[in-house]
Amino acid sequence: MRSFLTVIGIFIGIASVVALLSISQGMQDAIEEQFEQFGTDKLIIMTRSGGFNGPPGLDTDTAARPLTEDDINEIKKNKGISRATHMLTKNSVVRFKKETKFLQIWALPPDKDSRRMVTDMQGFEIAEGRDLDEDDKYKVVIGSMLVDQMFDKDVGVGDRLEINGKTFQIVGILEPIGNSQDDTSLEIPIDIMKEVFDTGDEVAMIFAQVKDGLDPSKVAEDVEDDLRDFKDEEEDEESFTVLTNEQLQDQVGSILGLIQAVIVGIAAISLLVGGIGIMNTMYTTVLERTKEVGIMKAIGARNEDVLYIFLVESGLIGLVGGLIGIILGLMMSFGVELAIAQSGFIPMKASVTIELVLGVLLFSFALGAISGVLPAKQAADMKPVDALRYE
Amino acid sequence: MKPVIELKDVWKIYKMGDVEVPALKGVNLKIKKKEFVAVIGSSGSGKSTAMNMIGSLDIPTKGSVYLDGNDISHMDESDLAQIRGKKIGFIFQQFNLLPNLTALENVMVPMIFQHMPKEERIKRATKLLDLVDLEDRMSHRPPELSGGQQQRVAIARALANDPEIILADEPTGNLDSKTGQIIMKVLSDLNKKEGKTVIVITHDPNIAKIAHRKVRLLDGKIIGR
Question: pTM score, two decimals?
Fold first, then answer.
């Protein structure tokens, strides 16, 4: 019981570290997969507010000038760009049979080349019905989760719903993308979007494809320079950002890294407490076994032998804590994996490698042994004659 | 013949705060190889302190202790432990076996500290327990053994590394008289048949009768040999 209480701090810290490392690695792998689909030759240009607006009436970032169709034409002129297109997005009230939700509406230019560029990047595919075509007016294609997970009643091809007060007919349903934002969004024709939401020639996001063989980061710098000159803005005061796939991944990586650092910091506190717990237990153990130390020394144990015995013992306490921590940590990370899968966010698999497990076990043993150094030294330095007299 | 153990003008003074208590006062003692010596004295005579000096469990405040001609008075504890492990086998009044180990494992412990290979340890420990008639109790732990059996395990352990010297501190103190006699016979046989130097610390003159020589201690001094 005493040993179990001793290792509580260790296994809580280890469980947190194991869960964190396996979940964050899994998330990194999932995000990398998403970015791979996006393509390394693509650039995203968006306003500093990210190109997304809140509910109607909510002030957007007034410091950010919106991107416009003129900006797209300017980008297309860049020698490093093979093609460019844009997307419009708005958040809006959507009503279906007396129920209302606040969802994202998006639109793409009608030409096939543009549509193919974006749908390939985002992984949009029709599951049922058809895609929008150039002649469509008040038609809509919906994300997969809208069919049976958003409204009380199921939604299907042919049904009508209201977007920002206008009635649209559903002509198609997309295959699941894998994240709830995309799977609950609705696509309408771009000219209707401009009419319904009065967007003028604003665009939310511009996608540009870099020509084969060119370095995307260099082309991105070029595009940034061109656009800055076109919009007559100062360097470092741009109203827009130009991001490569790599830069997007780095940004996500930094956020993940920060979260990891915070959790590791918290886990480290738990491990420190656990280590102190082991030290305390070992001091008690050494005291209780004083006579035993005296006997061992009388029959030939050197100071180093006694030190080794107690270090191994405290190392084993740490190891047991590590083992329990690994089991708990894996349970936690698989629990998170399940929760994410059910929530509809980007699917991810918790990543557990043999290196992680062995590394954690080694660390636990070392932590235990280090925590036991002072008590073990105390035992090793005991005089046999005094230890034998101890009752 | 060079003595196997020699105490030369050995003093041991304990400091209790400001007070100094001399437990041994200039003790001179020579013990030859293959002798059976009884160190006798009442409680407080200094016989336990003398045993600690002889057994290198403690070092003198003044004077020198020689073991096989080597001055061990100023050695560090690790070196003393090695010497003890090789040359001296201890038998204690309270047996002092390790309670969580079996009889066989207890006998093997001193061999581990001398880095004896495992197979050799098991073989030797089994033979020693056989020697003290405990081959059928090898897998029992000390709480499962009687006092006499525990002391026999302790004797087997004392013989683990085939030491020259057996040092027994009140070996029959916790035993009934019949069992005590058995133990003393074992010690006597070790001296006569195995040629071990046996030193017994005791307050009991009947136990001392078996010895070749009796060394009497009173108030930290030797008064008869």
Answer: 0.71
